[in-house]
Amino acid sequence: xxxxxxxxxxxxxxxxxxxxxxxxxxxxxxxxxxxxxxxxxxxxxxxxxxxxxxxxxxxxxxxxxxxxxxxxxxxxxxxxxxxxxxxxxxxxxxxxxxxxxxxxxxxxxxxxxxxxxxxxxxxxxxxxxxxxxxxxxxxxxxxxxxxxxxxxxxxxxxxxxxxxxxxxxxxxxxxxxxxxxxxxxxxxxxxxxxxxxxxxxxxxxxxxxxxxxxxxxxxxxxxxxxxxxxxxxxxxxxxxxxxxxxxxxxxxxxxxxxxxxxxxxxxxxxxxxxxx
Length: 276
Known about the structure:
The chain is an alpha/beta fold. Helix content is 35%, strand content 24%. The protein has eleven helices and nine strands. The protein has a seven-stranded mixed β-sheet with strand order 5-4-3-6-7-9-8, with helices on both faces. α7 runs antiparallel to α11. It is globular, with a radius of gyration of 18 Å. 50% of the residues are buried.
């Protein structure tokens, strides 16, 4: 699901705010995000090793969220620009002293400017993946690297199933509220190929992830588009119902919750000779 599962997961955020087109029913509160999903940027750290940023390079972070992973990128000596669709997350990144800009991940307005692009826990919030990939291709110099991690096929399947069941029991169509795109490796590799990339590696990574608190905090952070389909007065009962449905599978005997993440991680290169 962070967005920014963002560095976390916002519609153009990682967050692992994750960042794309913001849904009217989803907003990103940096404080709430950090409380319930601060682990996203930490789990995205291996992407930096895959990207191998070099001092003097220009790197674009798509869906930068509040900038935790962007900050690590900048420590390499590269010049880093972060973009995110959430003004609140961008403001938080700017408070870190980062070059962060409000920009829709499905409409990147950058041309041949970057040596590499990174995205963590944000691409699954963008429901126009081909538009995203076209924008990334435009932003890169020929031969540029694109490294990313997003929710993949099977991501948060148990959570999504429990949420859908609770909505359907109330006569609400859960599919219409679904804000996520979780592709298979084969599907996303084909999209990368069509956008002009050579796929160097792509794989699903099952990653059950311990949560810092109860599952309700995670649901409130990442499931607003579903929760807002429920009348306000019924929402506490809705969250309680989803929590109890998930308890047998996602809560251990000590009361510790986890999320059933499955991540899709890839490394690709834009075809064409690097610019001299």
